[in-house]
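Marked as duplicate of an earlier ticket. Keeping the data here for the record.
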Amino acid sequence: QVQLVESGGGLVQPGGSLRLSCAASGFTFSSYAMRWYRQAPGKERELVARISITGDSTNYADSVKGRFTISRDNAKNTVYLQMNSLKLEDTAVYYCAAALVYGLGPRPSYWGQGTQVTVSS
Protein backbone atom coordinates (compact mmCIF):
# COMPACT_ATOMS: atom_id res chain seq x y z
CA GLN A 1 0.00 0.00 0.00
CA VAL A 2 1.44 3.33 -1.09
CA GLN A 3 1.68 5.93 1.62
CA LEU A 4 3.06 9.44 1.89
CA VAL A 5 2.75 10.76 5.41
CA GLU A 6 3.56 14.39 6.11
CA SER A 7 4.48 15.69 9.54
CA GLY A 8 5.99 18.76 11.15
CA GLY A 9 3.27 21.29 10.48
CA GLY A 10 1.92 23.58 13.14
CA LEU A 11 1.51 27.14 14.33
CA VAL A 12 4.48 29.48 14.07
CA GLN A 13 5.04 33.22 14.36
CA PRO A 14 6.13 35.30 11.38
CA GLY A 15 9.86 35.00 10.93
CA GLY A 16 9.91 31.56 12.48
CA SER A 17 10.90 28.21 11.03
CA LEU A 18 9.39 24.79 10.54
CA ARG A 19 10.68 21.57 9.03
CA LEU A 20 8.21 19.37 7.25
CA SER A 21 8.88 15.69 6.68
CA CYS A 22 7.22 13.26 4.33
CA ALA A 23 7.76 9.55 4.92
CA ALA A 24 7.15 7.29 1.95
CA SER A 25 6.31 3.61 1.83
CA GLY A 26 4.84 1.08 -0.54
CA PHE A 27 6.81 2.15 -3.61
CA THR A 28 10.43 2.60 -4.66
CA PHE A 29 11.05 6.04 -3.24
CA SER A 30 14.49 6.38 -4.83
CA SER A 31 12.93 6.05 -8.30
CA TYR A 32 10.67 9.07 -7.92
CA ALA A 33 11.22 12.79 -8.00
CA MET A 34 9.51 14.48 -5.09
CA ARG A 35 7.51 17.68 -4.81
CA TRP A 36 5.99 19.85 -2.15
CA TYR A 37 2.76 21.67 -2.93
CA ARG A 38 0.63 23.93 -0.81
CA GLN A 39 -2.95 25.12 -0.91
CA ALA A 40 -4.22 28.12 0.98
CA PRO A 41 -7.93 28.67 1.64
CA GLY A 42 -9.70 29.87 -1.47
CA LYS A 43 -6.61 29.47 -3.65
CA GLU A 44 -5.38 26.92 -6.14
CA ARG A 45 -2.79 24.35 -5.22
CA GLU A 46 0.70 25.73 -5.79
CA LEU A 47 3.93 23.87 -6.48
CA VAL A 48 6.41 25.05 -3.87
CA ALA A 49 9.51 22.97 -4.49
CA ARG A 50 10.72 19.87 -6.30
CA ILE A 51 13.76 17.66 -6.09
CA SER A 52 15.22 15.10 -8.45
CA ILE A 53 15.70 11.42 -7.74
CA THR A 54 19.27 11.88 -6.59
CA GLY A 55 18.70 15.23 -4.96
CA ASP A 56 21.17 16.93 -7.27
CA SER A 57 18.53 19.17 -8.82
CA THR A 58 16.04 21.34 -7.00
CA ASN A 59 13.64 24.08 -8.01
CA TYR A 60 11.52 26.54 -6.07
CA ALA A 61 8.58 28.83 -6.57
CA ASP A 62 9.64 32.46 -6.63
CA SER A 63 7.54 33.10 -3.54
CA VAL A 64 9.71 30.81 -1.40
CA LYS A 65 13.11 31.03 -3.09
CA GLY A 66 15.85 31.76 -0.59
CA ARG A 67 13.64 30.84 2.37
CA PHE A 68 12.68 27.19 1.78
CA THR A 69 14.97 24.24 1.16
CA ILE A 70 13.88 20.85 -0.12
CA SER A 71 16.02 17.79 0.54
CA ARG A 72 15.67 14.04 0.58
CA ASP A 73 17.19 11.00 2.26
CA ASN A 74 16.72 7.97 0.05
CA ALA A 75 18.01 5.67 2.78
CA LYS A 76 15.14 6.83 5.00
CA ASN A 77 12.54 7.16 2.21
CA THR A 78 11.89 10.69 3.38
CA VAL A 79 11.71 14.12 1.79
CA TYR A 80 11.99 17.32 3.80
CA LEU A 81 11.01 20.94 3.45
CA GLN A 82 12.92 23.35 5.66
CA MET A 83 10.97 26.60 5.89
CA ASN A 84 12.65 29.68 7.29
CA SER A 85 11.61 33.31 7.60
CA LEU A 86 7.98 32.28 7.42
CA LYS A 87 5.42 34.84 6.36
CA LEU A 88 1.69 35.13 6.92
CA GLU A 89 1.13 34.22 3.29
CA ASP A 90 2.87 30.87 3.79
CA THR A 91 -0.18 29.68 5.70
CA ALA A 92 -1.56 26.66 3.84
CA VAL A 93 -1.94 22.93 3.84
CA TYR A 94 1.33 21.45 2.58
CA TYR A 95 1.33 18.24 0.55
CA CYS A 96 4.15 16.06 -0.61
CA ALA A 97 3.86 14.19 -3.88
CA ALA A 98 5.87 11.63 -5.83
CA ALA A 99 6.35 12.03 -9.56
CA LEU A 100 7.96 9.73 -12.11
CA VAL A 101 10.04 12.53 -13.56
CA TYR A 102 11.64 15.71 -12.25
CA GLY A 103 10.10 17.79 -15.01
CA LEU A 104 6.75 19.46 -14.61
CA GLY A 105 4.89 17.63 -17.37
CA PRO A 106 3.50 14.53 -15.70
CA ARG A 107 1.20 14.85 -12.75
CA PRO A 108 2.36 13.22 -9.52
CA SER A 109 1.65 9.55 -9.14
CA TYR A 110 1.10 9.68 -5.38
CA TRP A 111 -0.03 12.30 -2.88
CA GLY A 112 0.10 12.67 0.84
CA GLN A 113 -2.81 13.79 3.00
CA GLY A 114 -1.28 17.13 3.87
CA THR A 115 -0.12 18.94 6.97
CA GLN A 116 -1.36 22.34 8.11
CA VAL A 117 1.09 25.21 8.46
CA THR A 118 -0.26 28.35 10.08
CA VAL A 119 1.82 31.50 10.36
CA SER A 120 0.27 33.93 12.78
CA SER A 121 1.25 36.41 15.43
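See parent ticket for discussion. The mean pLDDT is 97.
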